[in-house]
Amino acid sequence: MKIEVKNLTKYFGNFTALENINLDIVEGELLALLGPSGSGKTTLLRMIAGLETVDDTDKGEILFNNIDVAKKDIGDRDIGFVFQHYALFKHMTVFENIAFGLRVKPKKERLSNKEIEEKVTKLLKLIQLDGFASRFPWQLSGGQRQRVALARALAVEPKVLLLDEPFGALDAKVRTDLRRWLKELQEELGITTILVTHDQEEALEVANRIVVINKGKIEQIGTPEEVFHNPSNEFVINFLGNVNLFHAREIENSSALEEPTDNKYLIRPHELEIVSVNDKDAIIQAKVKYIQLAGSFVKVELTYLNDDKRVVLVEMPHYEFNEKNIQKGDIVGIRTRKLRSFEDGAGI
Ligand SMILES: Nc1ncnc2c1ncn2[C@@H]1O[C@H](COP(=O)(O)OP(=O)(O)OP(=O)(O)O)[C@@H](O)[C@H]1O
Question: Where is the ABC transporter domain positioned along the sequence (predicted)?
């Protein structure tokens, strides 16, 4: 299913929750709606689902395969949902939870009991919970419950899957495992999927494209690589990971910048390099305050030598850290590997 959102605005009283949203969702893709709390992600998802109305006064449109669904009931939109706390039916087994949507279909569309059993068995395999059919929800872990919720959503073969922070309540390790699993499953099924998340890593890892939303407006739409490496503005770069801010005069002091400007520069920790304190390309001098060795990269936190309230974060591979023999308390120089400025509205 292809979905188009055109000129969509949503007011709650005087408050503008969404402002002129335009978005094309390609058949079979996994699109992440990423933004801070209150940015309007859930409202947009709920409008696509039909849980929130498109105001009559609004000229906004939501098209499913070129057909306007604004006036279509939620039941007629062929949608499967999984929410963060989409509680399973407590008094029903895993099997009956998954079968629920199939059993409540009108008689003429309903599958036979045997067909339902075959289908549920297949879904249990798909979510890797074969053998769990007769358990009750309270006998499952949080991750297993969310997988059952996903199977229940998929049972009725929806054309679109809407996921609102489906792994939000789970711990970090389970979350990481489940999102990999979801990605593979989604690719295998080829079902158009919209995932709401405020977790940048989750969006970067699973999405084909990311829509970055802030205060009801779209800041950028792009592949994970695009939004991470070519953020279109300051909000996006800040939201997608740690970033250091430098003023132009700091950069001008080094030979890294030929033309003096008023710009400020936003540079990610891995785009900075620790060099010797006298290095001619160093933009600032700093003192090593804290070193975090656990993780795939070494994170070094430093403070400016001339202003110990200002912090700089540098990340580097372990081999580079070992070669440079950096110690807490060292006075060093910091050099940039990349410059990025937004002052003129365009990234460098
Ligand atoms: N029914 C409603 N009535 C009034 N205001 C609402 C209503 N639903 C949402 N809002 C407001 O609209 C804004 C966007 O809410 P929304 O739930 O879409 O944000 P979100 O990006 O999904 O946030 P979160 O990540 O916290 O769920 C918020 O400021 C919220 O308070």
Answer: 3-240
Residue of the CA atom closest to atom 7 of ligand 1: 12
- Ligand 1 proximity of 36 Cβ (cutoff 6 Å): no
Amino acid at 324: K
Residue pair 30/149 in contact (Cβ under 8 Å)? The answer is: no
Domain that holds residue 296: 244-336
> What does the block give as tokens for 320?
């580079």
Residue recorded with tokens 């979905």: 3
Q: Which helix (H) or strand (E) holds 11?
A: strand 3-12
Q: Is the pTM of this model over 0.90?
A: no
341: DSSP letter: B
Task: Tell me, using a 6 A CB cutoff, whether residue 85 lines ligand 1.
Answer: no
Asked if pLDDT for residue 346 goes beyond 70, the answer is no
Range 250-257 average pLDDT: 61
221: CB partners within 8 A, 6+ apart: 23, 209, 210, 211, 212
Joined together, the tokens standing for residue 73 give: 């009931």
* Ligand 1 neighbourhood includes 41 CB (under 6 angstroms): yes
Distance CA 50, CA 182 (A): 24
Q: Please give the angle made by the CA atoms of 303, 340 and 24, to the nearest 5 degrees.
A: 125
141 in the same domain as 249:
no
For residues 186 and 259, membership in a common domain is answered with: no
Q: In Å, what is the CA distance from 212 to each residue of 6, 116, 183?
A: 17, 40, 19
* Inside any domain, residue 185: yes
**Cβ of 197 below 6 Å from ligand 1:** no
Q: How many domains does the chain have?
A: 2
> Nearest CA to 10 among 49, 55, 46, 48?
55
- Residue 345 reports pLDDT greater than 60: no
CB 185 within 8 A of CB 39: no
Q: How does 25-37 read in b/e, with b if 16+ C-beta sit within 10 Å?
A: beeebbbbbbbee
Query: Quick check: 99 and 116 in contact, CB under 8 A?
Result: yes
Two tokens, residue 215: 């205060």
Determine the distance separating the centroid of ligand 1 and the alpha carbon of 109, expressed in angstroms: 37
